[in-house]
């Protein structure tokens, strides 16, 4: 490995510095530990929102076998993580998927991945402001009688997220830690209450029998489960700010995927026990949005249900901050290589954050929210679902490409063969194939995400190849017109 690093360092052009002051030309280094990065990843997944808002649909479409979908996706992503973490020591760039794909599949594919990542994370983050505005308005009206339109809360959320992103990454990690612990605790409180009372008809493991796990109905829950893990690649985005990144990033990746997989599976199984195997699908069909609140009221009390409504809002806020940080760090990485404007790479001299990129991302969110508010669309059923969905498809496609990139990278670099075939070939190749199939499955069942017709669904799905190919075209144009910039792509060493 040492010889390989020496070889690539010799081939690498001098690392450019992002624009900004000499005293603050890079992000805060050695700031984040394993737990901090796990908090960022898990918070982006928004466990409480995913469980209360999406898990009932997984049960509705997949029956009592729905928990198995979360197990399956967790195993798949652990398989992906085997190759992803094997390549981590050879990537000295904060661009995550962009850097991995460029080093494995070539610079044109890498720049296509970079543009797709920026698009997808922005779609995920900005779409969430619709959900944040919707749930905030409903919660304030139900609990306090304050009736304000959803854009008011969406704009307030943009301001809060910008401020937290503007402050140091360590400050943001502490905020996310508190919010994640609280939203996890309320779900565990519900789970303990259900287990202590024995559920509706006694506790069973029917969900994990072959008759319920392997059915044609499981395609729907699998697609919904995949979306619940979105954002776990953020472990690599924080490489520059991590302590001992060669160890911290892999550990955080496995811990994040493992925690989310086990936690989701457990909570979905528990909620099935709350209503009983024979009654749970009917309960989900009757009112999926209220399913978790009904269980909370029945097993814990009305006060806990009200608290859960508030914590869904804070869960969304945590996810918004996580995605905001991911977006600004992608912009920072691309600015270092002169792909995006130099201003996006400027680091605040006091807080060590990419503050210009943060302002740009927040301004974009303001523009999009304003447009949708003026048009008069529903903040959840249309704004959130329609904007968020192409982001989900884009990230899934990037995961598949990254898995194949791992295979290509280790085949093209003989100095890395000591990693072993399981980590460099078998696991990433299997993960790439399965992720590609999963991406196709999600596109086929996009109606589960959007509630819209084929015309809208295929238009949203088509955005992923269009954005990716646009990035490829830009890379080829840069290769002709600016070969010096092209040579730098995915080679900037943050150290």
Automatic annotation (TrEMBL):
<feature type="transmembrane region" description="Helical">
    <location>
        <begin position="422"/>
        <end position="443"/>
    </location>
</feature>
<keyword id="KW-0812">Transmembrane</keyword>
<dbReference type="GO" id="GO:0055085">
    <property type="term" value="P:transmembrane transport"/>
</dbReference>
<dbReference type="GO" id="GO:0016020">
    <property type="term" value="C:membrane"/>
</dbReference>
<feature type="transmembrane region" description="Helical">
    <location>
        <begin position="310"/>
        <end position="332"/>
    </location>
</feature>
<feature type="transmembrane region" description="Helical">
    <location>
        <begin position="37"/>
        <end position="62"/>
    </location>
</feature>
<feature type="transmembrane region" description="Helical">
    <location>
        <begin position="111"/>
        <end position="138"/>
    </location>
</feature>
<keyword id="KW-1133">Transmembrane helix</keyword>
<dbReference type="InterPro" id="IPR004841">
    <property type="entry name" value="AA-permease/SLC12A_dom"/>
</dbReference>
<feature type="transmembrane region" description="Helical">
    <location>
        <begin position="150"/>
        <end position="169"/>
    </location>
</feature>
<protein>
    <submittedName>
        <fullName>Amino acid permease</fullName>
    </submittedName>
</protein>
<feature type="transmembrane region" description="Helical">
    <location>
        <begin position="455"/>
        <end position="476"/>
    </location>
</feature>
<feature type="transmembrane region" description="Helical">
    <location>
        <begin position="176"/>
        <end position="200"/>
    </location>
</feature>
<keyword id="KW-0472">Membrane</keyword>
<feature type="transmembrane region" description="Helical">
    <location>
        <begin position="68"/>
        <end position="91"/>
    </location>
</feature>
<feature type="transmembrane region" description="Helical">
    <location>
        <begin position="383"/>
        <end position="410"/>
    </location>
</feature>
<feature type="domain" description="Amino acid permease/ SLC12A">
    <location>
        <begin position="39"/>
        <end position="451"/>
    </location>
</feature>
<dbReference type="InterPro" id="IPR050367">
    <property type="entry name" value="APC_superfamily"/>
</dbReference>
<feature type="region of interest" description="Disordered">
    <location>
        <begin position="1"/>
        <end position="23"/>
    </location>
</feature>
<feature type="transmembrane region" description="Helical">
    <location>
        <begin position="353"/>
        <end position="377"/>
    </location>
</feature>
<dbReference type="Pfam" id="PF00324">
    <property type="entry name" value="AA_permease"/>
</dbReference>
<feature type="transmembrane region" description="Helical">
    <location>
        <begin position="220"/>
        <end position="240"/>
    </location>
</feature>
<feature type="transmembrane region" description="Helical">
    <location>
        <begin position="252"/>
        <end position="272"/>
    </location>
</feature>
